[in-house]
Design a protein that fits this description.
By secondary structure, this protein is mostly helical. The protein contains four helices and no strands. Helices cover 46% and strands 0% of the residues.
């Protein structure tokens, strides 16, 4: 599952959308509301995910995130 959803990164196969994403993620954001990612922040976010929602494309459910966290 990991290999399917996270294939080896190869920028030679990039399409225009991939190129744009790479360029935008290479820049460090600098906005007034930037916060450091902390364990507590991730914990609060995971707690807020409803267990009734269907999993995303990766098949990972909210319950699995809670267990792993």
């Amino acid at each position: 599952m990991l290999e399917y959803f996270n294939p080896e990164d190869n920028d030679l196969d990039d399409k225009n959308q991939n190129i744009h994403i790479r360029e935008s993620t290479d820049k460090q954001p600098n906005t007034p509301d930037d916060r450091e990612f902390t364990r507590e922040l991730f914990g609060r976010i995971i707690e807020e995910i409803s267990n009734k929602k269907t999993p995303g494309e990766d098949g990972i459910t909210a319950e699995l995130y809670e267990i792993a966290f």
